[in-house]
Amino acid sequence: MEPACAGCRKAESPPILPRVTFAGTSVSRMLLGGNPFSGVAHRPEDPDAGRRLREYFTDDKVLETMTIAVQVGINAFHGRGDSNVFRWLDNYRAWADREPNRPVLHWLGQTAPDQYVDGRVEPNIDTMAGHGPMAIYVHGATGDKCHEEGRLEYLRDLVAHIKGLGLTAGIGSHRPAVIRAAEEAGLGTDFYVLSLRHIRQSPDICRDEQWAAETIRSIAKPFVAIKALGAGRLQPEACFRYAAQVLKPTDVVTVGMRDYEVVPNVRLAASAFAAQEAANA
């Protein structure tokens, strides 16, 4: 399988995305998000949005989007642990193996609640581990639910399970309180995944943006910021400036994009990170 028109979308002069060490790997500070590929739109006001995304992102279109991303400096993909993502990763890796420079696209694996067996997350983690992730984290909805039910010790067990497979382990949430509780409990996590911006139509996602920002800045461990563009509702340039200001130098941001959005968003992100680095100098 070849990406459609893979060569025609190359940036004339690729922007420079900074890289950080994440999960022992040099990773671009912006990751390619997989929610759009999977039809996860976070648009409860538009019930048909997910279907339209799934129709748009055929296997060929996913591969094309991935190849565009690596051409402009993104070297990590953030996606669910399900059969679709496994297939997309296999397709990308087969394409990359035929390229002269064999461009790597690392995978940050998110557990997929619909793949849990009898409510247990461990089988999903075990399956994911067989598909080459650089790290695995417990999905935000699962982290939120465990916190609500007073089951932080189960999150500890899941972190230990991931680490027992030789992988870097994280916990995700849409709420700063969950991340703070996990850190205070010392669950052994290596990193966190947290929503950065509020989505009015989804009130449980990052109700307090300032508290989210303070949580990211006050905890030394690396963060992966999600919902940085409010699930596509906010103006990208201002959002990337905000993310660059909030994130620590060790943090990264995930952005889900259609193929034609990748190059302009990378340029905006690279510019925002560069401007913030200059301001901090």
Polypeptide structure, described:
The chain has ten helices and ten strands. With about 280 residues, it is α/β, with parallel strands linked by helices. Strands 3-4-5-6-7-8-9-10 form an eight-stranded parallel barrel, surrounded by five helices. Helix 9 links the parallel strand 9 and strand 10. Helix 2 packs across helix 3 and helix 9 runs parallel beside helix 10. About 5% of the residues have low confidence.
List the helices and strands and how they pair.
Layout lengths: L18 E4 L2 E4 L1 E4 L15 H8 L2 H13 L4 E5 L2 H15 L8 E5 L11 H8 L5 E4 L1 H9 L3 H13 L3 E6 L2 H10 L5 E5 L13 H10 L4 E4 L9 H11 L5 E5 L5 H19 L1
Parallel strand pairs: 3-4, 3-10, 4-5, 5-6, 6-7, 7-8, 8-9, 9-10
Antiparallel strand pairs: 1-2
Helix pairs in contact: 2-3, 9-10
Fold-level CATH name: TIM Barrel
What is the mean pLDDT? Answer: 90
The structural class is: alpha/beta
Element pattern in H and E: EEEHHEHEHEHHEHEHEHEH
Count of individual beta strands:
10
Strand content: 15-25%
Give the CA-CA distance, first to last residue. Answer: 46 Å
CATH evolutionary superfamily = NADP-dependent oxidoreductase domain
Sheet with the most strands, sense and barrel status: 8 strands, parallel, barrel
User: What integer value in Å does the Rg equal?
Assistant: 18 Å
DSSP summary: helix tally: 10
CATH class term: Alpha Beta
